[in-house]
Amino acid sequence: MPARALVVLLLMLNFGVATWWLLRPEPLPPTPWVQPADVPRLQLLDEVVDPGQGTAATDPGVDDAAAGGSAAATRESGVIAVAAADAGTSDGDAGAQAGVADGGAPVAPAAVPVATPAPAALVQRCMSLGPFADAGSVAAARAALQPLGAQRMRARDVVDAPRGWRVVIAPQADRVAADALAARIRAAGFDDLLVVPGGDDANGIALGRYGSEPAARRREASLRAAGFPGQAQPLGDARTRHWLDVAAGAGFDAAAARDASGAARLNDLDCATFVADGGAG
Questions:
Q1: Nearest to 153 by CA among 268, 258, 243
Q2: Does 37 fall in a domain?
Q3: pLDDT at residue 84, as a whole number
Q4: Confidence of residue 26 (pLDDT cuts 50, 70, 90)
Q5: Which of 107-121, 234-248, 267-281 has the lowest mean pLDDT?
Q6: Whole domain around residue 262: which residue ranges?
Q7: Across the strands, what pairs with 200?
Q8: Are 131 and 175 within one domain?
Q9: Is 229 inside a domain boundary?
Q10: pLDDT at 279
Q11: How many domains would you assign to the chain?
Q12: Do residues 190 and 226 lie in contact, with contact meaning Cβ atoms separated by under 8 Å?
């Protein structure tokens, strides 16, 4: 029974499809495309007519005699061109030596680049001599190095960094005055202070130690703003060392320069950095 029902269903489906195929409407004809009036028509390359060819095709007055004359003229010009080429080949060497172009204007031969070695004076060695005690010693060293071939020299001062900074107020007349000033400073809101009991700074007021100068300067500024004469001072001796930077040629005797200048040390420098920084002559 199920098989019979399946066969009936398939028959009905086939009948429906066949009926639709026979009764379906005809397809609509395609709508013709109309070229807009303001758009030029696209032409292929072989559709473009050459004006010269068109004139020749429409002009029946061109006869075989004219065509023959053109062919003869072409052959004659070809013979002349071959003869001129042979003459140009035989004279090629002379033309190349004279360096004359087709237009008659002389042409300069191509320049061949030649590598020129750099002068020995431009090859520099740079060094730093020192340290010197003062500016007078630097000037004496400069005068001694000039005859030895130093090309450029520059004095440079290096300040040694202190161990730290402190903020103090100068010693007062006695301990009573120092204690009174310390009380006024505390009343203004500054608690980190100490009255120095003895030594060179006895009866002075210490207002803190700092690892950097900016911190000490800020403390000094806040005290001065409150009306107290605080002073930021470096700890230890901040010595200034004087150096003389020298740029010289490759044959410069560095050992003789150190002996002549009286420098205790000689350090090599980067010449590019020295020249870029503007070493004096």
A1: 243
A2: no
A3: 42
A4: confident
A5: 107-121
A6: 120-159+240-276
A7: none
A8: no
A9: yes
A10: 61
A11: 2
A12: yes
